[in-house]
Amino acid sequence: MACKKWILCGLLCCALPLVALAENDIYYLDEPGLTIELGGDFMAFTRGVQEDDPNLTKIGLSREEFLSLMREQNAYLVAWDESLDKELLVSVVEVPANDLNQFSDTQTGFLLAIIKGIYENAGIDFLQSDTYSTKQAKFARVQFAGDDGIEAFYGLQYVTIRDGKLINIALRSYDGPLRASQKGFLQRIVDRVVFDAPLKPEPEPVRTPAFLFTDPTSGIAFTVPANWQEEPMTEEREYLDAKFVSTLDAGLSMFYSCADLWSELSEAEKSLLPRALCDSSAFTGAEIARILGYAEDEFSVVSIAGDQYYSVQTVLLETFYGIPVEVPATMMARIENGYLFLFQFAGATDNAHYNDFRALMNSVDFSGVHGNETLEEDLTRLYWIEILFALVVTIAIYSLPILLYRYVIRRRPMGRRKAKRVAIVYGAVAFVAMSCLIAYINGGSAAIGAVFLWSWVNYKTLTSGKKRGQSRARSTRVKVRPQGAQAREAFGNSARSAPAQKTHAGGTSVARKTPPFREAIVVFCHKCGNRLAPGSAFCNRCGAQVIGTVPRQDRQ
To answer: Of 32, 113, 115, which Cα lies nearest the Cα of 76?
Structure first.
């Protein structure tokens, strides 16, 4: 039964030799170099247990079986109460670290994160953690709960590191959560632990002045607060441009990175979006979230020193003594002049040094990111591009169909009344189309004055073909001989000079003068060349007015 209840911490991975002496519930453990006093009604076992110990019979194990279990679980002291519902154990394992008292708050947090990961992998719930210090040592305190497949258990443990050994003192309950009195009992045991080696003092903090950091690539500048210094980047973090570490809290970091998004755009996209205008406002929240690999609802927009940033609470992967550790982090993102700027604080927002990160963010200066000449050139180019684009779209919607109809399909002017109706109707249709287009692009609407302007332009286009200011249309008169004149001309002058003979009844003929041929006047339209009927006031083809005539002698 005791074996089934014996749940040891997954942190322990190797067995250590142990010599134990017991007197009045005080145990001296030679290997970790500590003395521990239990107190209370507990039956305790160490690796020095005797073969004839009557308590072995209570747990149903021989001495060899019991020692084998202790070595497998890295335990060197195990104790139970009389009901076997409470279990107290002390275990030890060698670790690369030297002394927990030398750990900063951040490094202690890394240790707790490692313990949490081990518990979760073992199916044990990690409930709560904090730190606890005595005159002899600094401890990480953890509350946990789990189920061994037979019954549930609840526990509280104190973990410390001394001289390269991780020492774990834990109390487990198999009859419900630990009560406050039981937690106090374990804390008193920890308070009475005495280590052979004196406590090593915490290292003296290194204080450094604030300094200005300038990115030569983008031109951004910001002030790194006091007691932070730049640290070279490791190979796995080459995508980051700078790392700053705290001199007061070892392991605490801030990161800066910059990526040139504008250079990755196509030439067509660059022509429509100059670098100077490629900022956060040119992208939607969903697009920025997709660029950074997060969901849009994970971001919030914050304003720092008048600049808008996208903020997200995320997790960074740190390495602690070769073990990967996930730590909470805050990230700020902003796009300026085509560059994506990222600032990260590898710690929770309630961290004592989070204000240093806020101070850094307040000092960010983007003025060096924009080159004045480049900005002016980009704005000028964009200005003319916008004007040209607006002009082309306006002509295409308001006037292009009219131009095609007048000069490609009809190819002649239209009457004024009909042209007026067509111009007004098409102007209204074009206004609705332009309003829909503008609303889709920027949510605005077309100017109502454009209807009148372009209706007038279209009217002039439809009726074009006569000179401006001309009040009377001109026509051309041409003399032509009546039919048969050319035949008579073939007879020569003799036909015209021979007198006509009139024969009377008596056979006598009387010469008479032949009357001259009458000339007919044929009028042609001066615009389209159409032959007009005599007396026409308007051309029956193009509608031009015929008021006056210009006679012209027939050429011989």
So the answer is: 32
Query: Within 10 Å of residue 429's Cβ, how many Cβ atoms?
Result: 12
Interval 525-549: pLDDT, tens: 878 888 888 777 888 888 888 756 4
Residue 414's identity, in one-letter code, is: M
Q: Which residues of 273-311 are buried (b: 16+ CB within 10 A; e: fewer)?
A: bbbbbbbbeebeeeebbeebebeeeebeeeebeebebbb
The 10s digit of each residue's pLDDT in 127-150 is: 999 999 998 899 999 999 998 788
Tokens of 56: 């072995």
Of 324, 265, 317, give the one whose Cα is nearest residue 291.
265
For the cut 70, the answer to whether the pLDDT of residue 299 exceeds it is yes
Beta strand spans in 70-151 (E): 75-81, 86-94, 125-133, 138-147
Half-sphere exposure of 280 (CA within 13 A, CB side): 17
CB 16 within 8 A of CB 76: yes
Q: Distances in Å between the alpha carbon of 215 and those of 72, 221, 334?
A: 55, 6, 15
pLDDT at 38 over 80: yes
Work out the number of other CB atoms within 10 angstroms of the CB of residue 45: 25
DSSP states along 390-402: HHHHHHHHHTHHH
Instruction: Identify the pLDDT of residue 54.
Output: 76
The whole-angstrom separation of Cα 123 and Cα 120 is 5
Cα–Cα distance between 91 and 2 in angstroms, integer?
17
- Residues with Cβ within 8 Å of residue 416, at least 6 apart in sequence: 463
User: Contact 535/546 with Cβ under 8 angstroms?
Assistant: no
Would you say 534 and 523 are in contact if contact means Cβ atoms under 8 Å apart? yes
Contact call for residues 161 and 99 (beta carbons, < 8 A)? yes
Bridge partners of residue 341, in order along the sequence: 258, 334
Q: pTM above 0.70?
A: no
